[in-house]
Amino acid sequence: MNVLLRTQAPRAFSLAKAAQANSRVSSALFHTTTSRWAQEDGKTIYGKDLTPSSPQLKKFSDRISVKLDDSELLLQSMTHKSFDHARVPTNERLEFVGEKVLNMYAAQHIFEKFADIDAQQYEDLLEQYIGKDALAQFGLDNGIEEVMRWKPASNQKDSKIGLNTVSAKAVSALVGAVFHAQGAKNAKEIIQKHLLAKNVELSQ
């Protein structure tokens, strides 16, 4: 079982994780291909030129071993509601489904693998497995910023925060898309392979 015991305060642990996530987001923003940017009302729009047939989408899906026959559904899972004023299909509904599926299988995994833990430890493990930072880390580690369509909020001063949030939502939506198109078995396999196989730290 990939578990490390830790005694440090949860807040200190959270701050360390936040710093790591911030570093990953900064790197992702720096390396995002400039040809995919567009400007609208002085704000950068990401993924403006992406289409269902864009090679970036296939490369991304191959990288994470997700095979969706419907490339339009894949692109929809990567499309945040901020993109094009939601005039195209967005990932909101897929994200909602994916979030529930993630919670179900992560909760099952923790229940089966960790005996005699209290409620706080349970929540802590859920956060490590499928919290926003965990989902964003998985996405950014696999180049999700190259296939997302989104626009930072007009009142958002730090685009790094937006990228972290939008990346996590896109990962949830991707799980929702797999669940919708291929069923529970395939969705569970993806979650187990990419999110539940990591090392975690169990607080005492």
From TrEMBL:
One of its GO terms (cellular component) is mitochondrial large ribosomal subunit. One of its GO terms (molecular function) is ribonuclease III activity. Residues 57-183 form the RNase III domain. GO terms for biological process: mitochondrial translation; RNA processing. This is Ribonuclease III. It comes from Basidiobolus meristosporus CBS 931.73.
